[in-house]
Specification:
Among the domains are: about 100 residues, Cytochrome b5-like heme/steroid binding domain (Flavocytochrome B2, Chain A, domain 1, Roll), CATH 3.10.120; about 220 residues, no CATH class. Helix content is about 55%, strand content about 5%. By secondary structure, it is α/β, with parallel strands linked by helices.
Length: about 475
Amino acid sequence: MATSPAAVVPPQQQQQQQKHPLTANDDRDKYITLSELSLHNKPDDLWISIHGKIYDVTAWSSFHPGGAFPLLNLAGQDVTDAFLAFHPPSASARLREFFTGYFLRDYSVSEVSKDYRRLVADFSKSGLFEQKGHGTMVSLSCIAMLFVMSVCGVVFCDGTLVHLLCGAGMGFLWIQSGWIGHDSGHYNVMSGRGYNRFTQILTGNCLAGISIAWWKWNHNAHHIACNSLDFDPDLQHIPLFVVSTKFFGSIVSQFYERTLSFDKVARFLVSYQHLTFYPVMCFARINLFTQSFVLLLSKRKVPNRGQEILGLLVFWIWYPFLVSFLPNWGERIMFVVASFVLTGIQHIQFCLNHFSSSVYFGPPKGNDWFEKQTAGTLNIACSPSMDWFHGGLQFQVEHHLFPRLPRCQLRKVSPFVKELCKKHKLPYNCASFWKANVLTIGTLRTAALQARDLANPVPKNLVWEAVNTHG
């Protein structure tokens, strides 16, 4: 039997419960409703439900490996599907520490969630989450080869064309390191946590100049609130880009905790966003460099801050030092531009997966996990021979539904996801790389043309708004 709620609930939260007392001396004193659970949705009073049990994760949120933001986004809700998506079965053992003694009275599971949970269980029993293949070692070998070739080409060769190719090689190196950093943020790509952490710092901070702490902070929020205009940081690119006219109202970013102002500068830049998209993507890496330092130098709690900063310093020592070996400023600029432009391919793909998909306004909900992830993502159709290039993000739908699944397994589970989407009449969005670019530019162009209407800053055509808010 469950223990008494009063024995495990902090005094402050007991006071809040008195505002909506439960019937005492009755079996009902161990149950609360969804509406009562929803009251516990603040940083100092954070409850969630998993499989109908209520957990108080207020204190744990500060230590949560995925950061506090995902917990805060889903606070006061049933989060079973999200929990299963992001945590291995072993994580369930830790839940006992946070059990309040309460159960959810009106707990229910939709047919979609039932089928989704069966898939998670089946994949787990089949060992798919543990079968990681040799992708990481192949990628690391490729990265090492590209690094040695680029360094040797710069230091020991005098040809301008060779230096240009070395810059391009550095760009491909950053793309491959980005895939490893992405994977290692979702699951252990190495045999143990220590080796996984070393690989993260090496490939992310040291070789690419991007903080893995920033990446996880940003990326976890994106996964939980996929394509929410005010909660997903991957859609919040004012003043350069907007994907919905909702941004014309200067919405508040819950992630950045500030207003995304749609001022005259933003209006001008957004008016031409479909033309500036590719040039900006060529140098989008500058934003990642900046965001990494902004987080590490902020007052936010950052795990292993010293390691993170040291890793970035390593990058900012070796990369400028390598560039300094080039014979003149013209070739130095050429080398840097080439490395940035090649990496822009990866930044473009990040946008292709979501910019043209369905968007919504408001916080994510725990009871439509499968529906939101499928609606907000777009797969890129490609042959198996190109999987290495796309790094697993060509199966964006599968990745969002099963973020712990190694990328080498995504193609294998794709038919099961398609079948489940078909069964429940949900979208399974997929397009060729070319078509995905067309869709993305079309979304940007539609919003750009609306932004040019200076006399009507916020569209009054409610039908147009209703259609285009959903991509």
